[in-house]
């Protein structure tokens, strides 16, 4: 069995040639900078061969789409599982680019070409089903934030979410106004999720001192101090709304 690091691009040629020949195509190698060309009547197929899937290969293939919409990229079958999340994303990209994908597997002296994706027009689905829900979730998250407190691309730092910002808003009011009921907090603009936030107490910032009344905990007082910009923003809101208690 050939190992990928010993393979050459020319090793992909014969099994792919056999595949298209059986489909009734005339197959040619190295035609006008194209690795492979297959022709049947008026149908022109271009195949670009590489040992790995790369951005350069995708760029090369999309340039070939100027000549025909039947463009395939061909690579040796990867050792990793092709039903993984990583490959699922790659398949999506290939389909999005309206390219085809051929993988060549080697077993002993035998080599077989399998077409995993055929070139086809890509249909974007932004208005229905799961994609619509994701879109609505993004817009809902943005509407729940007062400003942009996160740096794009950061995945190892604490992210400010709309939920956390809502918790900070409630904590800042309790810290300034003293114990309050969920109803009073909602009237101050903390939103319909206020009772749930106080009950779940995800960050440990709140304490129920009696039925229907909450205060900020010592932990809450300490940790909320990190968010001075938000505290000033929210206290300014209730002051502007005519609350004379602050």
* Largest sheet data: 6 strands, mixed
| Spatial shape | rod-shaped
Distance between the termini: 78 Å
> Would you tell me the overall average pLDDT?
85
Q: CATH first level of the largest domain: which class?
A: Alpha Beta
Sheet with most strands: strand arrangement: 1-2-3-4-5-6
- Classify the beta-strand content into a percent band: 15-25%
What is the radius of gyration?
Answer: 30 Å
Number of strands: 8
Element-level helix/strand string: HEEEHEHEEHHHHEEHH
Which fold name is given in CATH as the topology of the largest domain?
Trna Endonuclease, Chain: A, domain 1
Q: What is the CATH architecture assignment of the largest domain?
A: 3-Layer(aba) Sandwich
Binned, the helix content reads 40-55%
The structure class reads: alpha/beta
Low-confidence stretches: 150-157
Number of helices: 9
Provide the number of structural domains.
Answer: 2
Structure, briefly:
This protein has helices at residues 10-22, 55-64, 85-96, 129-143, 162-177, 182-187, 194-200, 218-224, 228-240, and strands spanning 26-31, 34-40, 43-49, 71-76, 100-107, 110-117, 206-210, 213-216.
């Amino acid at each position: 069995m050939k190992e990928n690091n010993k393979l050459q691009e020319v090793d992909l040629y014969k099994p792919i040639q056999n595949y298209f020949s059986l489909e009734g195509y005339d197959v040619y190698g190295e035609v006008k900078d194209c690795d492979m060309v297959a022709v049947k009547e008026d149908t022109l197929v271009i195949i670009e061969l590489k040992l790995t899937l790369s951005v350069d290969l995708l760029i090369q293939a999309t340039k070939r789409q100027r000549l025909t919409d039947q463009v395939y990229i061909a690579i040796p079958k990867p050792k990793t599982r092709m039903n993984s999340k990583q490959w699922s994303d790659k398949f999506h990209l290939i389909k999005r680019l309206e390219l085809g994908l051929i993988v060549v597997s080697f077993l002993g002296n035998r080599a077989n070409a399998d077409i995993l994706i055929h070139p086809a027009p890509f249909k974007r689905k932004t208005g229905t089903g799961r994609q619509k829900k994701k879109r609505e979730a993004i817009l809902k998250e943005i509407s729940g934030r007062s400003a942009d407190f996160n740096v794009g691309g950061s995945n190892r730092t604490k992210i400010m979410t709309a939920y956390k910002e809502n918790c900070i808003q409630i904590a800042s009011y309790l810290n300034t106004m003293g114990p309050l009921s969920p109803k009073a907090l909602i009237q101050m603009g903390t939103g319909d999720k206020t009772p749930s936030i106080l009950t779940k107490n995800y960050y440990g910032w709140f304490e129920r001192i009696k039925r229907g009344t909450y205060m900020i905990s010592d932990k809450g007082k300490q940790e909320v101090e990190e968010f001075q910009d938000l505290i000033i923003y929210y206290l300014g809101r209730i002051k502007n709304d005519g609350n004379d208690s602050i």
